Amino acid sequence: MKRVRDGRWAIALGVAAIFVGAVVGVGLIGLRGGSGPGSSGPSPSPQASSGTLATPAGTGIVASLPFGQFAWSPDGAYLLVWGGDDYVTRVYDRFGRLVSQFGSIESWLDATHVIDGDGYVADVLTSHTGGPTANSWTVGSGHRSAAIIVGVPGCVGDPIIDWYRNGRYVKADERATPFGWSLDGRLLLLGHMSCSSADAETYGWKGPVGVVDFSSGRVLATAPDVRGEMALNPGATRLAADSDKDLEILDIASGSVKTVQNARLLCWEDDDHVYALTTGGYLALVGATAGIPDFGGVVVAWAVPSSIGPSVEIDPTGRALRIEGADPKTTLLDLSSASLVVESYPTSDLHQLSAAQPHWWSPDGRMLVLQSSDQRSLDLISVDPAGPAETGGAPSPGGS
After folding, report:
1. Cα–Cα distance measured from residue 36 to residue 287, given in angstroms and rounded to the nearest whole number
2. Which of 139, 186, 196, 396 is the most buried (most CB within 10 A)?
3. CA distance to 307, 309, 356, 381, per residue, from 235 (Å)
4. Alpha carbon separation from 276 to 77, 119, 230, 316, 347 (Å, rounded)
């Protein structure tokens, strides 16, 4: 039986929260760390002169931002936040400073441009007040491609979509559901909903999801019966997807499907292992290939890694416990009293931005976004792998 990190074992599992938000003050907030000094003080510019991204010094909460769904720019320089009923998208830099604002739901076209439901492309530094407000949004790849939802039928069928490809808007009126892209923008998850099934109306959409090579349009493999969440592994070689009570893991190269019974997807740990919920509400580590056991151990916490080593450790209810270093015994930041949680995806939400988890970390692994458990804000956290935060009390998010 495989141990996860330092071998924490099972207790019953709950599910993480959905959240709402409000704007509060900016400032690096010190929470309890393991040992060693931390520092504060933002850089005057979100972009360092050397061409590398400037990062708030030390490890701690930098700012609490308004509630919303969110997505990092492909280079991690900016955070896109949208949500609620105001149809406003806001862009912040890594210090939590408002950079620009848009009058519609946008997504990342590339590192410096966003795209809206009209196919309008805007520079990230230039605010724009136009754009559609309802039943229209985009699923951008971050690599100069996007699916543009231009209409939603009055049932559970596929929306009508156009495309942005090769630098231009392409009118297609295609009926399909885009669920997200691989991190490199090469692969697109494209599904097809049933518009006639009463079962889908009651329990949510169920249908095939194809893994599409976007440049050629070729379907590389298909997950046959997806109902619920899905996510590509970090290497974009496998797709894990819920199928009613079971978890299906699709090998993209061979097209073969491994079915893990009585399991629901949480998140990939690495290319070969998935965190899943099992019957009875337990958290387990699941093998993604035929050669790895379905259940490699039941655990009491799961750790979602950044690209450079540190991880955020999460308890069974979705509460963030701490940020640990590359060595799991090192605590960079103790979050246990900060009332922060990870988000959970609504299983029928068409506004899913990315099919690759986790998305809480910035691409360079030095920034993290978590939501407050009181459903009021998003907290922007700076992570310095060189040392933990200063020892001290842990104020509530947004405190001063």
Report:
1. 38
2. 139
3. 12, 16, 9, 26
4. 31, 37, 12, 11, 15
- Here the tokens at position 365 are 């692994």
Q: Which of 209-213, 262-266, 300-304 has the highest mean pLDDT?
A: 209-213
| 26-42+57-261+343-355+369-382 CATH fold | Methylamine Dehydrogenase; Chain H (2.130.10)
Answer yes or no: are the C-beta atoms of 214 and 221 closer than 8 Å.
no
HEC per residue, the chain: CCCCCCCCCCCECCCCECCCCCCCCEEEECCECCCCCCCCCCCCCCECCCCCECCCCCCEEEEEEECCEEEECCCCCEEEEECCCCCCEEEEECCCCEEEEECCCCEEEECCEEECCCCCEEECCCCECCCCCCCCEEEECCCCCEEEEEECCCCCCCCEEEEEECCEEEEEEEECEEEEECCCCCEEEEECCCCCCHHHHHHCCCEEEEEEECCCCEEEEEEEEEECCEEECCCCCEEEEEECCEEEEEECCCCCEEEECCEEEEEEEECCEEEEEECCCEEEEEECCCCCCCEEEEECCEEEECCCCCEEEECCCCEEEEEECCCCCCEEEECCCCCEECECCCCCCCCCCCCECCCCECCCCCEEEEEECCCCEEEEEECCCCCCCCCCCCCCCCCC
- Residue 173 CA to residue 175 CA, distance in Å, equals 7
Provide the pairing of β-strand 146-151 with 78-82. Answer: unpaired
Q: Residue 45: how many CB atoms within 10 A of its CB?
A: 10
The closest of 77, 71, 76, 78 to 106, measured between CA atoms, is: 71
The span from the CA of 150 to the CA of 178, in Å, is: 12
Q: Report in angstroms the alpha-carbon separations of 159 from 65, 140, 148, 279, 397.
A: 31, 16, 10, 33, 38
In this structure, are strands 121-123 and 113-115 parallel, antiparallel, or unpaired? antiparallel
Per-residue pLDDT of 348-375, as tens digits, reads 333 333 455 568 999 999 999 999 988 8
- C-alpha 52, offset from chain centre: 23
Q: What is the mean pLDDT of residues 168-185?
A: 92
- 42-51, 152-161, 341-350, range with greatest mean pLDDT: 152-161
Residue 176 confidence (pLDDT): 92
